[in-house]
Amino acid sequence: MPQFSHQHLLGIRGLDRNDVEAIFETAEQFKEVINRPIRKVPSLRDITVANLFFENSTRTRLSFELAEKRLSADVVNFSSASSSVKKGETLADTVRNILAMKVDMVVMRHPHPGAAHYLAEKIDVPIINAGDGTHEHPTQALLDCFTLRERLGTLEGKKVCIFGDIRHSRVALSNVRCLQLLGAEVMVCGPVPLIPRHFGSLGVKVEHHMDAALEWCDVANVLRIQLERQGSEVPFFPSLEEYHAQFGLTSERLERLSSAPLILHPGPMNRGVEIASELADRGDSIILEQVENGVAVRMAVLYLLAGRLGGSED
Fold it and tell me: Where in the sequence is the domain holding 254, given as residue range(s)?
């Protein structure tokens, strides 16, 4: 069994390449499982996993829940909209009450950066960060890199550009760290107000011209414009139409290139804003492969962390 050296998965920061390789090796095995006629294994039988989502989610929550059920875990779903959090209960108290019901692992999404790290200091069961504010989303980065490596064979020396709303994304930072760990060159591209200044200190290239970035990259990872997070009286760009004209990924832009990049998108997509609708469905888009691989990668993370409980089976 591959070895993962951490009790929790709180972010990509702190992982080494061996940790990532352990996840990928395990995910390859589980991808075979989920493509069998019988898609369940007893690896997490008698393990109870609580999915704590303090923020709305569709794809990530469904992906984790499916991964847990494919591993035969018992699953408890928690939504803050119908919980005592609305009555003033603290995060730590909420989780302690859930753990008192003999929960073995926690998957958590929270709107506040650092929430998963805070919780890890309070409780002693494995925690998987399913997204904390605009900070990190480690399993998304892992599934993106796993998908790219399947297609490209290696990420060593590959040029990956992350386009769009870098400032409000929890995917961007995790992707930068995971891509660099695997040897890729990374660029970020978007309007000046949507790229935080500190990204230039992360060892990434910064570009504000879409066509130049597309000509440079082997892979275009297109992020959603997160209007719900921007919440500013001063807009970050004049209009969605203007954004699409300057930074939207379109067929016309790709036709001008010497070779078209692979296209990723973590979803949900704003078709006609950051990406033209027809591009999401064309052959060099690997968006649906990301979705399939998300289940396998999350199965791998759950399995490896459950192995540290001493209660998982082969």
Answer: 138-290
